[in-house]
Amino acid sequence: MAHRLTQISTRTGDDGTTGLGDGQRVPKDHLRVQAMGDVDELNSQLGVLLAEPLPADVRELLVVIQHELFNLGGELSIPGYTLLKTEAVLRLDEALAHYNAQLPRLQEFILPAGTRSAALAHVARTIARRAERAVVALAAAEAINEAPRHYLNRLSDLLFVLARVLNRANLDGLGGDDVYWHSERLERAQG
């Protein structure tokens, strides 16, 4: 791996390029840089979510996910390098099964709403989907490992499920259940 940053204001990006972990410089709008940026934004959004009151098990899981996202970003920053392990994807699969088992079946689409923590989890979910699209676009242009794409796909699903869990945890007293979308078409059919 390349050297660690010792200063932040390097001015080396003033020409519109940025350095990858292997030392090569690429344009700041390069697909790899876009994917790295979306993963970084996702990790930052999870940091905001972690500033909220959360059930201890959800907090512990999100902290692990932040570290795994940092690994994913590191892998994306070094072409041909593997840092995110397949065990990370399996951990998300296990968490999905665990939390889904606690929830009632969905009756209708839900809105990204409810408690503040649930709403923040939904924002993170949408960023995870964007990061996944960026990784898919990168994979169409360059060879990358499958684990980053699989991880982001599972993570977006997990964040949806965790939003439902957080609404039920109701730690801010403003939630308690999913906020269902009211389909005018469905209401007319039932009315």
Automatic annotation (TrEMBL):
EC number: 2.5.1.-
GO aspect biological process, one term: cobalamin biosynthetic process
A Pfam family that the UniProt record links to this protein: Cob_adeno_trans
Feature: compositional bias, Polar residues: 1-11
Keyword terms: ATP-binding, Cobalamin biosynthesis, Nucleotide-binding, Transferase
One GO MF term attached to the UniProt entry: ATP binding
Keyword ATP-binding: yes
Catalyses which reaction(s): 2 cob(II)alamin + AH2 + 2 ATP = 2 adenosylcob(III)alamin + 2 triphosphate + A + 2 H(+)
Class of the enzyme per the UniProt entry, highest EC level: transferase
Region (Disordered), start-end ranges: 1-26
InterPro entries (UniProt xref): CblAdoTrfase-like, CblAdoTrfase-like_sf, PduO-typ
The Cobalamin adenosyltransferase-like domain, residue ranges: 8-165
PANTHER family for this protein: CORRINOID ADENOSYLTRANSFERASE, CORRINOID ADENOSYLTRANSFERASE MMAB
Protein family: Belongs to the Cob(I)alamin adenosyltransferase family.
NCBIfam families in UniProt: PduO_Nterm
Subunit-structure text: Homotrimer.
Name this protein carries in UniProt: Cobalamin adenosyltransferase
Organism: Leptothrix cholodnii (strain ATCC 51168 / LMG 8142 / SP-6) (Leptothrix discophora (strain SP-6))
Higher taxonomy: Bacteria, Pseudomonadati, Pseudomonadota, Betaproteobacteria, Burkholderiales
